[in-house]
């Protein structure tokens, strides 16, 4: 029936491509988007808290912390995809004002997992988790007008 409507409207008679199917499938109502955001964000926070609790497990605790903390940050970051859509999220992440914060944040996510799994360096994993926190915070406040300027002024006042 949809094919007939497209032909009658003068649109291309071909089947829609995979991208068109994804776009049609992802058009969610606002309440569904909000529920998806809350669920994904809650999973992210739960993973981060679980990672913090696993930090005290003997021998493998720091590696479990790094993994769960990173998964929590990825889930929390991914939760905003429900609010603004995947393409809009990617466009806003790589705007010139957020490019450095996004790059540092993604690099820290990757380096944390590398330090935990391949390099087996617990100290680096912990450092990268701390950097993840600051990079995600800096990225997040970039969405609030003048928040970065306020944070810079507070830091300079506290340091001097």
Main sheet specs: none
Mass-distribution shape: globular
Secondary-structure-derived class? mainly alpha
Name the helix and strand elements from N-terminus to C-terminus, one letter apiece: HHHHHHHH
Q: What is the residue-averaged pLDDT?
A: 85
Write the layout of secondary structure elements.
Elements: H1 2-8, H2 18-25, H3 30-54, H4 61-84, H5 86-93, H6 99-117, H7 122-141, H8 147-159
Describe this structure in words.
The chain is an all-alpha fold and 160 residues long. Helices cover 78% and strands 0% of the residues. It is built from eight helices and no strands. α4 crosses α5 and α6 runs antiparallel to α7. 16% of the residues are buried.
Summed up, what is this model?
It contains 8 helices and no strands. The chain is mostly helical.
Structural descriptors:
160 residues; mainly alpha
């Amino acid at each position: 029936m949809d094919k007939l409507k497209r032909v009658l409207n003068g649109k291309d008679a071909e089947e829609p491509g995979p991208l068109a199917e994804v776009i049609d499938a992802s058009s969610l109502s606002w309440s569904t988007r909000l529920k998806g955001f809350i669920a994904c964000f809650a999973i992210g926070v739960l993973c981060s808290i679980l990672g913090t609790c696993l930090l005290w497990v003997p021998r493998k605790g720091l590696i479990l912390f790094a993994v769960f903390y990173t998964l929590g940050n990825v889930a929390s970051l991914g939760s905003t995809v429900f609010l603004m859509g995947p393409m809009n999220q990617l466009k806003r992440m790589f705007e010139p004002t957020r490019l450095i914060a996004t790059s540092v944040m993604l690099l820290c996510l990757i380096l944390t997992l590398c330090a935990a799994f391949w390099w087996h360096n617990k100290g680096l994993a912990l450092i990268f988790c701390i950097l993840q926190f600051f990079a995600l915070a800096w990225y997040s406040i970039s969405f609030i007008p003048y928040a970065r300027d306020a944070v810079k002024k507070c830091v300079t006042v506290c340091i001097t």
